[in-house]
Design a protein that fits this description.
The chain is an all-alpha fold and 121 residues long. It contains 4 helices and no strands.
Amino acid sequence: MVTIDDFNQIASRHIKRRETIAESIEALIVEAVVELNLWLMRSKVDDVIGRLRKRQEEIVAVALDEVKAYAEETHHHIQMEAILKRAMWSIIKEPINQMKEMDNAEDIERCKVVLEQLFEV
C-alpha cells in the first residue's frame, strides 16, 4: 500500500536531485559569465592593437622618407621598408601578446593605457 509519506519521500528525493543539478548548472553559468567577461576585456585590446599598427605604419613611413633621402638607389628603399616594419612590429609584438594572455581586467586596462601612452595612440 502506498501512503502519502511514500509520495513525500519520492518528492523529497526528486527535489534534492533537482537542487543538486541546479547548483551544478549555476556553477557552469557563473564560469561561463566569467569567461565571457574576460573575453570582452581582451577584445577591448583589439582597438589598441589596431591603433598601434597604424602608429607603426606612420613611424615606418617617416623613417622610410628619411632613409630614402639618403639612399642613392631607389630599389633599396623597398628592402629598408620591410626591415623597418619588422623592427617596429617586433617592438610592440611582445607587449601585445602579454596583454592578450592577461586574466585580470585591471591589469589589462593598465597595460592598455601604458601602450597607448607609449605609442601615442
